[in-house]
Amino acid sequence: MKSFTKQENSWMLYDWANSAYSIIITTAVFPLFYKAAATKAGMSASDSTAYLGYTIAISTFILAMLGPILGTIADYKGFKKKFFTFFLTLGVSFTALLAFIPSDKWLLLLICYTIAAIGSAGANVFYDAFLVDVTTEKRMNRISARGFGLGYIGSTIPFLISIAIIILAKQEILPITTTTASQIAFLITAIWWGVFSIPILRNVHQNYFIEPEQKPIINSFKRLGKTFKNIRQYRALFLFLLAYFFYIDGVGTIITMSTAYGSDLGISSTNLLIILFVTQAVAAPFSILFGRLSEKFSGKKMLYVGIIVYIIICIYAFFLKTTIDFWILAMLVATSQGGIQSLSRSFYAKLVPKEKSNEFFGFYNIFGKFASIMGPLLVGLTAQMTGRSNMGVFSLIILFVIGIIILTKVSEPKIELSSSESIDHV
């Protein structure tokens, strides 16, 4: 394996940059900050969890609608970087803005969170599509998995600083409130995300594209319609998207709502933050390990492994009662969450036509985002109907079962079976 190029390193470093948002805003500090604000407003635990689920559903729906359209336009020469930069700026700006919203304004917090989430997820659409521009098919599994590994490692630094500030504030060692400590964490996230995004902005460029033409927006819609009409011609790609639609729903829901679920079980916010920190540290080597094992056993087989682990997680979560149980659950998640996401990204990248990478990653996004609507809604509705959050988590098991069944029908990209650089679209 030759050394990584400047473009590969710059691309991977963005995982290092935006993973701070994923852990601090999506998973750890913000959900707890919001839950505290909602509780202060007199809202029940199940209702606040449900409203968080509905908020996630709204933001993912908006991006699911925009993804394929923007992706199709971004396939024109020079557009990919512009769209990436716009969503990056949107996400960083509104993440920083979270630090200045009063803690008792829970609705305003959710609105700001929604816009920041759109920025983060929107930038990821074009970031994922840049994978075809920075490396070869033979190296995609390794590069994608190493990116996730760097993300887990990099996110632990601002996360550790943030939880240290929060814990010290709780113990009154620092002369600030826990509310202020959490708001400082939001600022740390925005600064970390913005600074470490500079390499990808400077060094990564769109190498595969469609030449500019007259009426680009109208022609983009025509191209999008034609692709949607003919997507079934790409049998492996279409089947993979269906499988991905189901299993990534469960993955995303567990990631985004884990702290809210732990809070409902009575686990203290301090314990939750420590558990999440250790989860990030453990997930880093496992993500890289998934990439290495995929070169020996194939990406598809390692996806099977990841999905099976998540089925076990859903079953175990149903019986969760103690902090130790949550520790075990978190370590199970750590073994597979990075691997299943990184290998899904690289597996799909091998199937798409390179010059239409944004367009096809737009479909990848819409399948993933529509799936992410279903999971949080399922958890939210079940939690409100039964008054038990564990029932919602357990119900996610069906999504993993359907996903793995469909995945068995997906053909392996030829590159994983030989040294050829061809792509199997059959």
TrEMBL record:
Keyword Transport: yes
Gene Ontology molecular functions: transmembrane transporter activity
Name of this chain's protein: Putative MFS-type transporter YxiO
Chief location category: membrane
Locations listed in the record: Cell membrane
SUPFAM superfamilies: MFS general substrate transporter
GO CC terms in record: plasma membrane
Organism of provenance: Gottfriedia solisilvae
Listed InterPro entries: Atg22-like (IPR024671), ATG22/LtaA_families (IPR050495), MFS_dom (IPR020846), MFS_trans_sf (IPR036259)
Major facilitator superfamily (MFS) profile domain boundaries: 236-426
The entry's keywords: Membrane, Transmembrane, Transmembrane helix, Transport
Membrane topology reported for the UniProt record: Multi-pass membrane protein
Annotated TM spans: 12-34, 54-76, 83-101, 107-127, 148-169, 181-201, 236-260, 272-290, 302-320, 360-379, 391-410
Pfam family for this entry, one: ATG22
Gene name for this UniProt entry: yxiO
